């Protein structure tokens, strides 16, 4: 392998790892969907669960992971009974290109399948 | 809810479903990584397994799903022993915007974390 080939191989590996990083943070069935729903504005836990069609147990885990990665903010509201609200962080906006690209692809894919 | 609000809600739901469609087809830990690796050119099953670091059992399942969705072509080569090669379809190129957006985001996210 010459220097250029080695460099190309290192670049490819690096790019593959960056995709894996992204998938580690927002991969899975729900995270990008939740971010998309929250882009509409803050939501209460129960609203999110209903809108996304996710069971509370899974939703709770997904939101916790999003919070850990600075993509979602959890706010406990001093109401009776206590309610918990979720909203997007400024940082989450950096995902807009990923979300837009996925929307467009899904749209085209649906057309392809429906024919 | 007035007509505009209803329309906005319908559009939001539609966009959410298109994201879910995309995640149904290329979501999960491996599919986009495999497509990225194959963008380099066709690979034998064992090469793919080694390069991606996926067990043969999972790789086989992932490739089968990619093939079903017209993203990957499986070719049986008349060698001794028989080998199986995988390559990308023309249609898989439609995912390039998704892959590029994910590469960029992963790159920035890594910088953010490393600081």
Automatic annotation (TrEMBL), chains A, B:
Keyword terms, alphabetized: DNA-binding, Transcription, Transcription regulation
Domain HTH hxlR-type, first and last residues per copy: 17-114
Pfam families: HxlR (PF01638)
A GO term for molecular function: DNA binding
Domain of life of the organism encoding this protein: Bacteria
InterPro entries: HTH_HxlR (IPR002577), WH-like_DNA-bd_sf (IPR036388), WH_DNA-bd_sf (IPR036390)
Keyword RNA-binding: no
Coiled coil, from the record: none
Protein name: Helix-turn-helix transcriptional regulator
């Amino acid at each position: 392998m010459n220097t250029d080939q080695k460099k190309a191989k290192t670049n490819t590996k690096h790019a593959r790892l960056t995709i894996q990083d992204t998938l580690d943070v927002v991969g899975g069935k729900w995270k990008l969907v939740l971010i998309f729903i929250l882009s509409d504005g803050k939501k209460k836990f129960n609203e999110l669960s209903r809108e996304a069609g996710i069971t509370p147990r899974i939703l709770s885990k997904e939101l916790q992971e999003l919070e850990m990665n600075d993509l979602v903010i959890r706010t406990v509201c001093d109401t009776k009974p206590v309610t918990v609200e979720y909203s997007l962080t400024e940082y989450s906006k950096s995902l807009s290109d990923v979300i837009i690209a996925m929307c467009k692809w899904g749209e085209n894919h649906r057309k392809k399948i429906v024919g």
